[in-house]
Amino acid sequence: MATLPLMDVTWSDRFAVGHPEIDRQHRVLFGIIDRAKAVVEHQGEGVDSAGVVGDLVKYVVQHFRFEEEAMAAAAYPSRADHLAAHEAITRKVLFFRERHVGGQESVDAFADFLATWVAHHIGDHDRRLAAFLNAAGR
Question: How buried is 138 (Cβ within 10 angstroms: 0-12 exposed, 13-18 middle, 19+ buried)?
Fold first, then answer.
């Protein structure tokens, strides 16, 4: 099966939201996505795609937990919308992991999905959250 070119999500300042901890966590997430891209480039060479997928799922859930706790602690007014976005992404991530483990989905499809999500979610939801947390001194 031919793989599709992955969206470029290499970390750059254009993704920075201005909150040190959120930006640090996003950089880690970008690093794991880079590992997924490496898996795609080296398919069939004994690379552990299940391990990378597991790391992506684990880190997405961990990162969301951090943001959700920060939103609750700061009484973020757009919390419900942000939580809904997290829940939708979490469902898709867990569904993908299940399909990947079952051999029904490739890691490149997952990496491309996450790349698209990262660009949009960070640029919208996380940027607004960071501005609110910074203004609240959190």
Answer: middle
User: Residue type at 71?
Assistant: M
Cβ–Cβ under 8 Å, residues 119 and 7? yes
- Residue 43 tokens, joined: 């398919």
What does each C-alpha distance from 84 to 5, 50, 62, 73, 88 come to in angstroms?
A: 29, 27, 16, 18, 6
Q: What is the pTM of this model?
A: 0.84
What ranges do the domains of the chain cover?
19-39+48-135
Tens-place pLDDT, residues 39-94:
767 665 556 777 888 888 899 999 999 999 999 999 999 999 999 999 999 998 88
CA angle (83 as vertex; 61, 109 as ends), nearest 5: 50
Nearest to 113 by CA among 51, 55, 37, 38: 37
Nearest to residue 22, comparing CAs of 66, 88, 71, 77? 66
Q: Judge contact between 76 and 82, C-beta under 8 A.
A: yes
Superfamily of domain 19-39+48-135, CATH level 4 = Hemerythrin-like (1.20.120.50)
